[in-house]
Design goal:
With 183 residues, the protein is an alpha/beta fold. It has one domain: Flavin prenyltransferase-like (Rossmann fold, 3-Layer(aba) Sandwich), CATH 3.40.50.1950. The protein is built from nine helices and eight strands. A six-stranded parallel beta sheet has the order 3-2-1-4-5-6, sandwiched between helices. Helix 1 (16-26) crosses helix 9 (167-181) and helix 4 crosses helix 6. The radius of gyration is 15 Å and the shape is globular.
Amino acid sequence: MTNITLAVTGSISAYKAADLTSALGKLGHTVTVLMTDAAQAFITPMTLQVLSKRPVHTNVMAEDRADVVNHIDLAKETELFLVAPASADTIARLAQGRASDIVSTVALALPQDVKKLIAPAMNTNMYLNPLTQANIQTLATVGFTEIEPKVAMLACGDLGRGALANVEDIVQAVQQACHTLSL
């Protein structure tokens, strides 16, 4: 099927990356997981390694093999790049073209024809902030498709748009993007 790179960032909904990794693997996709430091505060790399049956990448400076540059090799292997959950910080870094962690570095090194999906998850005010919205629009201009967050009671107790889309909806968006890859 498709080589999917799943980038997990710092959000309380990072735990849903386990269900997402499992669901994508059951559909026959190869899932390679990247994690920011903040994501690792919510879910361990070991959990996602067991579910993906592949090493989880957490450090841009970790070069396991002398014959490859890890972040470049990961980008070249990627057919679909999915950021779920996508924190406001990661969205800003991606929109600015920064290469400060494994997620943003791989994203910057992706070939132009790679399908890119982003599923924001954050507090309502953070999501609706004009800066975040501008960053999402910037990402749209370079090929990212947003999987919109849902309206729900958030972990902070606020009710509003900002909760990570349902895993089933993310999987459906991935399947639709994979279908266009095969056309």
